[in-house]
Write a structure and sequence with these properties.
The complex is a heterotrimer of chains A (about 325), B (about 300) and C (about 550). Chain A is mainly alpha-helical and about 325 residues long. Chain A has helices spanning about 1-30, 35-40, 45-55, 65-75, 90-125, 130-145, 145-160, 175-210, 215-220, 225-245, 250-255, 255-265, 270-275, 280-310, 315-320. Classes of the chains: A mainly alpha (about 325), B mainly alpha (about 300), C alpha+beta (about 550). Chains A and C meet through helix 2, helix 3, helix 5, helix 7 and helix 8 of A and helix 1, helix 4, helix 8, helix 15 and strand 18 of C. Chain A: Belongs to the binding-protein-dependent transport system permease family.
């Protein structure tokens, strides 16, 4: 088991390396640079200034050389300065990571709080009217374009209700409690779009468990519905759900881009977007490493946990040195 | 003509009324998209003609849903936009499913080093933050890498290509898992023992059994892609004007949010209904194609 | 096991809503605070790096320029006592050490000007700023200004003479010169010029009072979110009305207007705010609750024509393209008249504007006749042809800029009406400006805006030496490829023949020539929409690149 995890981690590092190269190459392939746009907006600037500034940012060097220079200093622990924010990369990244985790964490907990009861009800009354109603609610949440939902929330809640801020994170010296009003709308938007997927997944997983033999046995033995649904089915169905969340961790970070932009929340999504569009290689790549790293680790954990629970899956086969015989 | 199994599936599907209703709605929508030019000719509406003297007009004669910020007929644009939105959704989902199925079958059946490499590739593709990469890919100069054609036109082909590059991983994982589990089932083992080639086993025994799951996943993916198109439009990376798409119309409606909120309502509603219908359709299909009866279904 | 967890979660959920409902307003009621919404957050507060409007806007409250343009578009002194002039002997012609014609200009800083920590603003700061600007390793934006300064003579604590290696007629202005506090920044700069841009106190410790000298100083910076300014006790001018000004950045402009409605912000800045069509939509519904002011400015929206394209080389085709579009209707209908039609590159508010320059009116019949004359005959499908070639041109603009895309589609329709087929191929701003336009890769029409300063000579856009090519490393902004010896001569003369009569004559001829040659299709001058509280007075929108906040001490609320 340990050697398996070590191998997976090794593989993960290689994936990470490839991801950084791909990221660097892709950003580098985008034509133009924000410096070019400065020219149109500032009458004092001359094209000579643009060439000089590009040389200062190293943009006149070949892409591969620049990647190599970045990689060697990154491996020495020096991630450099962000070009956009003029600060060391870590100083920008860490508060934003915190802000993202606060938003995502709250939304995740809230979504689970709603999804779990809804999923139980839907599974218990599968294909009945109540199930259809839950379905409708779920799909409604999934099917609304996120920016439209966010703007509607602002127009319908923040504008008429004075104490709900339409955006921002509040003053930096606010306590956690004072920050709650600022979190209300972005958390609501994120929750509304996440609840549907979770509920649907939970319903499916519970139905799967309910159809297993041991559940029939439990029912035959006279176990009550609460015990059957919550005690057995839910417990077995929650694990895959948590795995699902873990697997999509990376995309969760960047997927909040729209909501962060509209509500003016300074999280990772917006930062990754701005860094990418602003040719801020140092910042974009470290953000990429963080989100990819999160996902890869979650991935490995998920596979390990699955293997521990399901003896039919053998890790060695998945690791790829078993020759993969059909029997 | 129709095998008993197909008949059973059909009966089950028709019995699932939300799925059935969605199928009807989507069929109508596809017909609308397919015959959009003819419909517009019959209605006498022009989705491109601007009228500076009839900007943001309320619904009235000649313009059933009013006009937009350039004085164009909103209904005509909604109808024509169904083309772009559905084309992006359908082609992307189909392309992604085809890639995903092939990779999943291969990885699940043969295992070994191929599986390992393919799955690391999938890991990588899942781990990459989707949105920023989509954005980078839409901004890339394709002439530089020898794909001249992708820079042309409204960008539909480019958008489909980029979105499919990311959407295949879900299907690949799903198919791989199913294949791995099917591979150990008696009928597959028996076929292999009787000397069937891997190609035949995959084609005759495994593919038909994973197809159900693939169809469901594809249906759900269509909805996701339509939503993604709207997000890309919002970020200014959608289809090039004057080609209308629902996402683009919704994005433009931000400018008239205060005096004409209806302009945001119609495309928003169109996206909402289409995506929700695809979800219910997927539901109905899953229900109909499920290998075993749901134990709770008969209660 | 599940039950207690679920109960705890439910409890937390309930608590969250309870707290949210009973949340106290975190507003200090006793302070006069103005909250301004802008749509961009400045990347740095250092005045010499990364020039962008959001930064100029904030800096306007906390810093002053040596000279600037007033809201009436006249050059004025802000940190100096008097503009240098040849008549008063504060400016003089001289010869540079290497024998070229040069100039000496003398300024005196305001005697009571001090940094917000009480340290006087002196010529020490001037000398330091020039040193930073001239050092090639620093990497400031407009090094051009500093390369023109050969040397500085310090006359006393407040007076200095700049020796310039170029003679120009606009010698009196020093607007691009951003004075830096030597007592704070010099020790940092001396640790290494190339590292200075990372280490400057403007980035590492921006709330140090000594960095600022305006009516306000920066009191708190929340990166990416907001900047709080508080009254500067050492400000030497009129005492500003507001105790605090909070500038909040909200990038999505629809959300920005929603924040105004919900009361989270009090006003939206015109300089870095919302597009004019969004403001008009907002005003149509909520105009009674706010004051909306539109100030047409120096953002000149136009279409560059690539003159290498054989179709566009024919001046009749260029004129036909302009005659075929109804710019008045676009201005009146789409923008309710707040964005005036541009008939040339000089803004009517500029003192150099010549109203007698030719104007082109909307006349589709004339456009059709011109195209016929040029040999483009109407084809069967409604598109003109010549020698079997259809009259098809490509237009490109910044993708995602909804206003430009809107105008673009209206124009496409109007051109189509006279038989010109226009294809739209928009690109993200960075691609368009970084590649397509700057390397002249556009084949037909490119629609974008120039921001120019008042009275700025259009050398980089109209002089034939400024056509970007691979040989000159794509330097220059004459993207159309316009080359007319007379225009080159006018531009050269404008820089050297400073007598008022010469200037007036040259500027007039320039505008006539521009309208005759039509290297560019002028569209309209963009307006900055200011949405403000009804009782806020004293805000004077400028319309040029020097923001209204440079006069922030005049802002007040009437009861």
């Amino acid at each position: 088991m340990l050697s398996y995890i070590a191998r997976r981690l090794g593989g993960g590092l290689i994936v990470l390396l490839i991801v950084t190269f791909l990221g660097y190459a892709l950003i580098g392939l985008m034509p133009g640079d924000p410096i070019d746009q400065m020219l149109a907006g500032n009458p004092d600037l001359t094209p000579q200034d643009v060439l000089r500034l590009k040389a200062i940012h190293g943009l006149d060097q070949p892409l591969l050389d620049r990647y190599w220079a970045w990689l060697s200093s990154a491996l020495n622990g020096d991630f450099g300065y962000s070009r956009l924010y003029r600060q060391p990369v870590g100083e920008i990244l860490i508060p934003r990571l915190g802000a993202s985790l606060l938003l995502l964490g709250t939304a995740l907990i809230l979504s689970l709080c709603i999804a779990v009861p809804l999923g139980i009800v839907a599974a218990a009354r599968a294909n009945g009217p109540l199930d259809y109603l839950v379905n409708l609610i779920c799909y409604a949440g999934i099917s609304v374009p996120p920016f439209w939902l966010s703007l509607m929330l602002i127009a319908l809640l923040a504008v008429p209700i004075a104490w709900i801020p339409a955006g921002g994170m509040g003053d930096p010296d606010l306590s956690m409690w004072q920050r709650l009003p600022y979190m209300l709308l972005p958390v609501t938007a994120l929750t509304l779009s996440a609840v549907g997927g979770f509920t649907r997944f939970l319903r499916g997983a519970m139905l799967e468990v309910l159809s297993e033999d041991f559940m029939r046995t439990a029912k035959a033995k006279g176990a009550g519905p609460y015990r059957r649904f919550v005690g057995h089915a839910l417990r077995n169905a929650l694990l895959p759900l948590i795995t699902l969340i873990a697997l999509s961790f990376g995309s969760l970070f960047s997927g909040t881009l729209i909501i962060e932009t509209i509500f003016g929340w300074n999280g990772m999504g917006r930062m990754i977007f701005e860094a990418t569009m602003g040719n801020d290689f140092n910042l974009a790549l470290v953000a990429l490493i963080v989100t990819t790293g999160f996902t890869l680790i979650a991935n490995i954990l998920a596979d390990v946990v699955y293997a521990m629970l399901d003896p039919r899956i053998r890790l060695d086969g998945a690791a790829g040195d078993d020759g993969g015989s059909a029997t | 003509m129709i095998s008993p199994r197909s008949r059973r599936i059909l009966r089950r599907f028709v019995g699932h009324w939300p799925g059935m209703a969605s199928a009807v709605v989507l069929a109508l929508l596809c017909l609308t998209a397919l015959f959009a030019p003819q419909i517009l000719t019959i209605l006498g509406l022009d989705p491109f003609a601007t009228d500076l003297f009839l900007l943001k007009a309320p619904p009235g004669p000649g313009h059933p849903l009013g006009t937009d910020e350039a004085g164009r007929d909103v209904l005509a644009r909604l109808i024509l936009a169904s083309r772009a939105s559905l084309t992006v959704g359908l082609t992307t989902a189909l392309a992604a499913s085809a890639i995903g199925t092939l990779i999943g079958l291969w990885a699940g059946y043969f295992g070994g080093r191929v599986d390992s490499i393919l799955m690391r590739l999938t890991d990588g593709a899942i781990a990459l933050p989707l949105l920023p990469l989509l954005i980078v890919l839409s901004a890339i100069d394709y002439a530089k890498v020898g794909l001249d054609g992708l820079n042309e036109g409204s960008g539909l082909a480019r958008m489909v290509l980029i979105l499919s590059l990311f959407a295949w991983t879900t299907v690949a994982r799903l198919v791989r898992a199913e294949t791995m589990s099917l591979k150990t089932r008696d009928f597959v083992v028996a076929a292999t023992a009787l000397g069937a080639t891997p190609g035949r086993v995959l084609r005759r025994h495994i593919l038909p059994n994973v197809l159900g799951a693939v169809i469901v996943a594809t249906t759900l993916a269509i909805g996701n892609v339509i939503l993604l198109e709207s997000v890309l439009s919002f970020l200014g990376l959608g289809l090039s004007p004057p080609t209308p798409s629902w996402g683009g119309m919704l994005t433009n409606a931000q400018n008239t949010l205060w005096d004409r909120p209806e302009l945001a309502l119609w495309p928003g509603l169109a996206i909402f209904l289409t995506v929700i219908a695809f979800n219910f359709l997927g539901d109905g299909l899953r229900n109909a194609l499920a290998a075993r009866e749901n134990p709770a279904a008969g209660r | 096991m599940i039950r207690p967890v679920a109960a705890a979660l439910a409890g937390a959920f309930a608590l969250l809503f309870f707290v949210a409902l009973s949340a106290p307003q975190a507003e200090a009621a006793d302070k006069r605070r103005l909250t301004i919404g802008i749509s961009q957050y400045p990347s740095t507060l250092h005045p010499s790096f990364d020039s962008m409007m959001a930064k100029s806007y904030i800096a306007g409250m906390a810093r002053r320029r040596i000279t600037t343009y007033s809201p009436e578009w006249l050059e004025i002194c802000q940190l100096c006592t008097e503009l240098p002039s040849l008549e008063k002997n504060t400016a003089a012609y001289e010869t540079t050490p290497d024998g070229k014609p040069g100039m000496a200009v003398t300024y005196t800083l305001k005697p009571d000007a001090v940094w917000a920590d009480g340290v006087p603003i002196t010529t020490r700061d001037i000398a330091f700023t020039v040193e930073v600007g001239k050092n090639p390793e620093t990497g400031i934006d407009n090094a051009e200004l500093y390369s023109r300064i050969d040397s500085v003579d310090i006359l006393d604590d407040k007076s200095f003479t700049l020796h310039l290696n170029k003679r120009t007629c606009d010698y009196s202005g020093l607007a691009g010169f951003d004075i830096l506090p030597a007592h704070i920044e010099r020790p940092i700069f001396e640790q290494g010029a190339s590292e200075y841009r990372h280490r400057s106190a403007y980035d590492t410790d921006p709330t140090q009072p000594g960095l600022w000298h305006g009516p306000y100083r920066v009191a708190r910076v929340t990166p990416g979110q907001s900047i709080l300014l508080e009254r500067n006790p050492n400000w030497w001018g009129a005492r500003p009305y507001f105790d605090e000004i909070l500038v909040r950045a909200i990038e999505n402009t629809a959300a920005l207007t929603a924040n105004l409605l919900s009361g989270d912000i009090d006003m939206i800045a015109g300089e870095v705010g919302i597009p004019v069509d969004q403001a008009l939509s907002f005003e149509a519904k909520h105009g009674a609750d706010f004051k909306a002011v539109y100030r047409p400015g120096l953002f000149y929206e136009h279409i560059d024509l690539n003159l290498d394209n054989p179709i566009l080389q024919d001046s009749r085709v260029r004129l036909a393209l302009l005659t075929a579009i109804d710019r008045d209707a676009i201005s009146q209908r789409l923008f309710k008249g707040v964005q005036p039609v541009a008939h040339g590159n000089v803004n009517p508010l500029d003192v150099r504007y010549d109203a007698t320059a030719p104007r082109v009116a909307y006349n589709p019949d004339r456009a059709a006749a011109l195209l016929d004359e040029a040999g483009w005959r109407m084809g069967g499908n409604g598109i003109r042809e010549k020698d079997g070639q259809p009259l098809t041109l490509t237009i490109q603009t910044t993708a995602g800029n909804t206003t430009r895309e809107l105008v673009e589609q209206v124009l496409q329709n109007q051109w189509r009406a006279v038989g010109v087929d226009i294809r739209i191929e928009n690109e993200p701003a960075r691609v368009l400006f970084g590649e397509t336009i700057s390397k002249r890769k556009f084949t037909g029409l490119a629609m974008f805006a120039w921001l120019s300063a008042p009275e700025s000579i259009p050398r980089t856009t109209l002089h034939s030496s400024q056509i970007p090519t691979a040989e000159n490393a794509w330097i220059g902004q004459n993207y159309t490829g316009y080359a007319n010896p007379e225009m080159d001569r006018i531009i050269d003369d404008l820089e050297t023949e400073c007598a008022e009569t010469d200037q007036a004559r040259l500027w007039s001829r320039l505008q006539h020539l521009y309208a005759e040659d039509l290297p560019v299709l002028p569209l309209y001058f963009r307006s900055d929409p200011f949405l403000m509280p009804k009782n806020l007075t004293g805000v004077r929108p400028t319309g040029h690149q020097y923001p209204s906040t440079l006069w922030v001490e005049e802002w007040r609320l009437n009861d």
